[in-house]
Amino acid sequence: METQAHLQSCPVCKSRPHHWAVKKCGDDTYAVDRCSECGFAFVNPRPSMEFLKAHYRTSGHGVSLDPPTLESVIAGEAVDPNSTIDAKRMISTIKNLTKDRQNKSHRLLDVGAGYGFFSKEAAINDFQVIAIDLAENERQISKSISGIDPVPTTFEDLELDPSSLSVVLMSQILEHALDVEEWVCKAGQLLETGGVLAIALPNFGSLQRIILQKNDPYICPPDHLNFFTPGSLRNLLKNNGFVVEKIQHVSRIPRSTIQKRMPRMLSPLSRPLFYLVSMALRIVDFLGLGSIINVYATKV
Known about the structure:
This protein is α/β, with parallel strands linked by helices. It is built from ten helices and ten strands.
């Protein structure tokens, strides 16, 4: 992996980070630093932008040997409709945060559109959607699902007029960014005053991560480079002219996961077990220890 210079300060609060862990992924080993002031952790040294562009043009969601098809994505969503549920929740929250604003543009930018479920839900809710994604396979699937053809560009290279957007949506993408401050700063430039930046990403402060430490599956460089707690993400947003309006914690285990791991003779118990696990995860979310956080902030 091509790397840049080793960062000497935390990208969020500029304090001096300390070494936290070494993570081996595939044939490569990555160092992860953590800031003792704000709790943000990050892969250090960073990969080069050239490496990241090449990586995401081909891998998308990390699938390279057996890329998904439109049929497999639709079939998977029918079994475990996680993306649909997440899209409905986030777009509904965004709509509530923007409904009282006057003269808003209703233009929504979907950064890293993936398979298009968020773009589809936003369009259903009368947003004028602009989607971007580097991976060709994902763009094709996204166009079929949402009817919107994503622009093949990085967020860094995207050119739009300042203050031309009502919403910037970053679902499961900011953890991949090379420069998180540049991304949040650019989102602020593109948004109208009062516009919404909505972010979903893994919670570095989750119960899962606390138990598993560096073995948490979300700590997976070079795909994930940035590991936020709710506090560190709030700091990053505040430092770039945003006010956090709402934070949601989301923990979920697919029913198919439980079914696959149970012996066949016990399969009738999979449904009640699923509901018991779901109830337990709701308690985890209530305590602020959920595995995923959704953060909604408005531009001041």
